[in-house]
Automatic annotation (TrEMBL):
Belongs to the ABC-2 integral membrane protein family. Residues 26-251 form the ABC transmembrane type-2 domain. It is found in: Cell membrane. This is Transport permease protein. Its main location: membrane. It is a multi-pass membrane protein. The keyword Transmembrane helix applies. GO terms for molecular function: ABC-type transporter activity. The chain crosses the membrane at residues 28-46, 58-79, 100-126, 138-159, 166-185, 230-248. GO terms for biological process: response to antibiotic. PANTHER family: MEMBRANE COMPONENT OF ABC TRANSPORTER YHHJ-RELATED, TRANSPORT PERMEASE PROTEIN. The keyword Glycoprotein does not apply. Keywords: Antibiotic resistance, Cell membrane, Membrane, Transmembrane, Transmembrane helix, Transport.
Length: 253
């Protein structure tokens, strides 16, 4: 492998992935429709509950649903490339592991953008989710968190041998983060050990960023606070991609 990343090769990989997604209607439906459908179901669940319960949990789940969907789809799709021998054939060409992973990340980032615009639009305009600031800020957070799910999915696919094993990583990687990210119990109210664990998990900062944008009394300064949390999320995504490039195998044993 003569080089780690080449922009033309990375873009070619991204275009190839997008072309594959276009032919796979079920995966496209899952990526684009499922987070919005889950937000709609959440609104329905709280529709007869007094108060603003939907506004309380909706913003966090607006980040969590895309994160989870992108993690699942990316991990399974990447493993399929390796188990079918496609990855080995691609890496035999003048393409590095970094090109492959960044191409996948770019393709799914564009998908995450469409996914997030749809989910945020439906949640705020149709479902009545209260957002004090501009919608593009909320969309930016949702996109970055979805990219984090993509990066983690690419990383764990390197350690799975079958699609079933890739799915099994979800309880190990996603669910613990859901439990301590502040969705059920405020992070400051967690026991000491769990609070420390929460501080080193990226989904905690994603929820903090959403919370800053949707519950701040004053919009001024809220975006700056969200950006600080978002930088942590982006750092985790970059780290996951780098580690994934270092551990990616050409074929499944």
């Amino acid at each position: 492998m003569s080089r780690f990343v080449s922009l033309p090769v990375t873009l070619a990989v991204a275009l190839r992935v997008l072309a594959q997604l276009r032919r796979d209607r079920r995966t496209v439906a899952m990526l684009l429709v499922l987070p919005t459908a889950l937000m709609s179901l959440l609104w329905w669940v709280f529709s007869d509950v007094p108060g603003d319960s939907f506004d309380g949990v909706g913003p966090a789940l607006l980040a969590i649903f895309p994160f989870t969907v992108m993690f699942l789809v990316t991990s399974v799709t990447t493993l399929r490339e390796r188990s079918s021998g496609t990855l080995e054939r691609l890496l035999a060409m003048p393409m590095g592991r970094g090109d492959f992973l960044l191409g996948y990340a770019l393709a799914f980032a564009l998908t995450a953008l469409a996914q997030s615009v749809l989910a945020v639009g439906v949640s705020t305009w149709l479902l009545g989710l209260e957002v004090p600031g501009p919608l593009w800020q909320l969309t930016l957070v949702a996109v970055v968190v979805a990219v984090l799910g993509t990066a983690l999915g690419l990383l764990v696919s390197a350690f799975a041998s079958t699609e079933f094993q890739a799915v099994q990583f979800m309880p190990a990687v996603v669910i613990p983060q859901l439990l301590v990210c502040g969705l059920f119990v405020p992070r400051e109210a967690l026991p000491g050990v769990l609070g420390a664990i929460s501080d080193v998990l990226p989904l905690s900062y994603a929820v903090d960023a959403m919370t800053a944008l949707t519950t701040a009394d004053a919009v001024d300064g809220a975006f700056g606070e969200a950006l600080a949390d978002l930088a942590v999320v982006a750092g985790f995504a970059v780290g996951a991609l780098a580690l994934g490039a270092a551990t990616l195998r050409r074929r499944t044993p």
